[in-house]
Batch of 3 targets.
Target 1
Amino acid sequence: MEFYGRQDLLELLNKRSDALSKGYRQNMAIIGAELIGKTSLLKHWLSKYCDTRVVTVYIEIRHEEANSFGERFVGNLFFSFLKNSHNGLKDDIVFLLERCAKYIPKTTAFARKILSERYARRTDVVFAKLLELVEQFNVESGKFCVLILDEFHLLAQMPPKDIYASWRKHIMLNKNTMYILLSSKKELARKILAEDLALLFGNFEKIDLQPFDNKTSSAFIRDKLKSLSVSEQIIAFIVNFSSGKPFYLNAICDALMNYHLKSAREANLTFDFFV
């Protein structure tokens, strides 16, 4: 899906990440309903942001075994490091470990230890060790890290339940890593941030991501359907039907474009199309 809008948030992400390399760290939590565009926002920002001093690491939290999570975390960290350093890339954990050993040997040795130890089956232990790995990476590489955890609330559902104990400590003490947390479970996320991740230092700037307003939704539709003749009545209907959610706006516009391309007649859409 082509990204649209949210320029104020893109600028805020740039501002917070730029400040990190200057010694000011402000963690962020972006909360919003499903299909509101949280992941699209961060992935678009990641595709545009570039600073060789800052390594950006995106991790999607899933229901999975601890050792699988550990391998994905290490792989994404090392892949992002090599990409940030303009090194050759291959999405393969063996390749990434071998290549990174040339540049960050201590961090790579620690990563191998995490992945090989039997305790890799315990999520809380693995997560704590991975946070230590990020600290080691900061020290050895001399780079800052922006760690993005998508659907972070799922960590609480992995046994054991109190996975936040060591995390709170690392957030407060490791000021070279900035966290961006995403969640579609609004009430649960707020509860975790207010209770489990309530910190004296390293607190989270909370952003409640909203659907597009009517003006932005209408502009989105006109931009997507600029090659078609679409009435204001149709635009208003799509805005109302989609509730301003980017996913639905895009899906409806794509369907209309596909209908137009497949139709033998010249499209001139009216309200009757939807009846």
Target 2
Amino acid sequence: QRNKQVAMGRKKFNMDPKKGIQFLIENDLLKNTCEDIAQFLYKGEGLNKTAIGDYLGERDEFNIQVLHAFVELHEFTDLNLVQALRQFLWSFRLPGEAQKIDRMM
């Protein structure tokens, strides 16, 4: 039952990231903390990279905190700037909107 709900939450997230996260929180599949949501996005199992980028690019204060927690999950030690950017950008797809991209960088 739980696995079905998680799969449903992923599907909802891929269609509408905010509604997907809300569904997972309401069904106690995800805690409503920046860290837990960031971990869920970082693992990215079955998640659309474009949807992850859209969620992380939102300008709500909470989404920005999730973005910061998401960045903290990456290990950039011993990487040069290009390698670090490549690793970071591999985990989601940048949204097309310039303001969102600016916020993320």
Target 3
Amino acid sequence: MFEAVREVSLPLPRVGSGKVRELFDAGEGRLLLVATDRLSAFDVILDDPIPGRGVVLNRMSLFWFDFFRDVVPGAVLTADVEAMDLGVELSGETKA
């Protein structure tokens, strides 16, 4: 098992931070949404994150964006970090 991801620090401008997700400016009008392992209940972030929760949240979101792609237009460009041209090197990051 791997260690829980509580905080995300990237060499990109942070434009938002929620209870569970972090939002970064990826340039060229794109946003990078990162799900952490933080857990919230009743709008409170709980002390103990769940390792791997962010990976599950990302995969569930990708499933539903794909499932409804012919019904509702989505905004997902890619979930493949290797395919993202962010202009910065991402190393040591948790990947789905």
